[in-house]
Amino acid sequence: MMKRLFALVFAGMLCSAAVQAQGWPTKTVHVIVPYGPGSTPDTIARLIFDRVQKNTGQSMIVENKSGAAGMIGAQYVARSAPDGSTLMLAPAGPLETNALLYKKMSYDPLKDLAPVMLVAQTPTVLVVSKDVKAGNIKQLLGEMQADQGHMSYASPGVGTLGHLDMAYLVSRAHAHIPHIAYQGSPKIITALIRGDVQMAALPPLAVMPMIKAGRIKPIAVIGPKRSFLLPDVPTLKEQGIDFGPVGWFGMATAAGVPQATLEEMHRQIALALEDPMVAKSYRAQGLETADLGPQAFSAYIQEDMKLWRPIIAQNHISLD
Question: Which positions carry the signal peptide feature in this UniProt record (predicted)?
Fold first, then answer.
């Protein structure tokens, strides 16, 4: 009798968990973007969750909570109820690299957040000014090594992907090339054209027009494959350097959300990404679709941190 009762109770628990997962979302979902309106993560979030809302019939509210390198919004999500009603769409910073760049944070991205899905990726393109003689990465590393204080490189800010990419390459050349931070890709491209700086690693969409116009020169795509926007530009790996990190955007929620709910979130977001209009919008922004679920995305973050940790430490990069 007791065995039968236990079996019935256990079966009821399984059914309850299944219904709970299948029912996501059961109420209004708040999607936090830790950057301002019009930013890339904001655009991606609105694009995806417009489709999720249509598919599920449940309200999806995108909210911007910017500031502190994305940490204000991330902290808000980390402290939210673990019921799947609050999500965040963000780049690597709030989900990963800030933990390597700041000595103190108000949340731990690895303990307080639960990865849901990797939703987008983009490589960067290593470009140089026209006064740089190099035409490939081997020549550029040699030119960097021989530099007598004439070269510098730019990025959109300390700790950004463009900064970390270039810091790695400068270290590989055993060179001492100064870093200059600019506010955004347009100003960096202007500086490259004027010869104020000599190198940068920027998104393909940002550099493509000036590459095609012959105003700056591409050296390599930094990523696992060539960019669909610049198919004639080889990757670093094709040129003998096995280094291919990408810029990425992912979804996370509060730690403690049941695994079954995380999987249903992933399923619904992946379904939204299948919409042809989403793919078209991604391409217009120079983005590539990605689909890693909760466990795979968690492993991806761990591997990414293993890549960046020594680079950040060896180059003494900090935002404190």
Answer: 1-21
Using only the alpha carbons of the chain, give its radius of gyration. Answer: 22
* Tens-place pLDDT, residues 184-233: 999 999 999 999 999 999 999 999 999 999 999 999 999 999 999 999 99
| Tokens describing residue 163 | 């900064």
Which stretches of the chain are assigned E, i.e. beta strand? 29-33, 60-64, 86-91, 113-122, 124-129, 153-155, 179-181, 199-202, 216-222, 247-254, 288-292
Both tokens of 74, joined, read: 């991330």
pLDDT digits (tens, 9 = 90+) for 1-28: 444 544 444 444 444 444 344 579 999 9
Q: Structure pTM?
A: 0.90
DSSP-derived letter for residue 93 is I
62 forms beta bridges with 31
Report yes or no: 294 and 115 within 8 Å, Cβ to Cβ: yes
Query: In this structure, which CATH number among 3.40.190.150, 3.30.70.1230, 2.160.10.10, 3.30.450.20 belongs to the domain 26-122+247-314?
Result: 3.40.190.150
- Domain boundaries along the sequence of the chain: 26-122+247-314, 124-239
Whether 205 contacts 128, CB under 8 Å? no
HEC profile of 94-125 = HHHHHHHHCCCCCCCCCCCEEEEEEEEEECEE
247 bridge partner residues:
122
Identical fold between 26-122+247-314 and 124-239: yes
